[in-house]
Amino acid sequence: RDISIMAKELMKHQQIYSYTTIWTDYLRNGQTQLVNTNKLLRSYNGITGLKTGTTSGAGVCICATAVRNDLSLIAVVLGADSSAERFTAARKLLDFGFSNFETKAFPTPTDLPQTIKVRLGVEKQVPLVCNLPTTLLFVKGATTSLTTKTDLPEYIDAPMEKGMKIGTLTLYSSSGSIGEYPITIGENAVKIDFAKALSILTKKACTL
Question: 104 pairs with which residues across the strands?
Fold first, then answer.
């Protein structure tokens, strides 16, 4: 699990693949040849890396990464008895993932506004924030359609602090609800008082 977490973080930096996909390289003006110990680079479709390793305590190991059709997988094999065994096990794990899972794009919400009205606030509206993933992982064939529904009030009453939840975006598949995402306000909704109201009126009067 630790190895897969580290691999996932590395994979966020695309430049890592510039190194992990190299099969051979040379040093000392070509006098010394380096060959990648990850044999899957020459035999597995979509392989992108990532790291092999062997120690007396851990045995023969590999963390293999591969990408096909926007699906990126990590296979970790520890404690294999031989190099051939680790590659066979990693290949089986990756094959299982590609055969049984798929990604789908998160649908674009059509009823999620960018702002919400503020009642009794200094500002008439504040921005909304809803952090949504770009893709989702599913068992192949488990869902045929994805839709969203937004549950929001017509307005909020000041005061409210930035980050407070005021609504929910629900994700639906053909089998029903499969996920909920909080909708929060992106700025403080400051309540207007007599002093603030007088200040605003004074500024407006000065501009006339």
Answer: 136
Q: Which residues contact 63 (CB under 8 A, 6 or more apart)?
A: 3, 4, 7, 49, 50, 51, 52, 74, 75, 76, 77
Residues 6+ apart with CB under 8 A from 165: 182, 183, 184
Pairing of strands 176-185, 165-173: antiparallel
5 within 8 A of 63, measured Cβ to Cβ: no
Q: How far is CA 104 from the centre of its chain?
A: 13
Q: Which tens digits make up the pLDDT trace of 30-89? A: 899 999 999 999 999 999 999 999 999 999 999 999 999 989 999 999 999 999 999 999
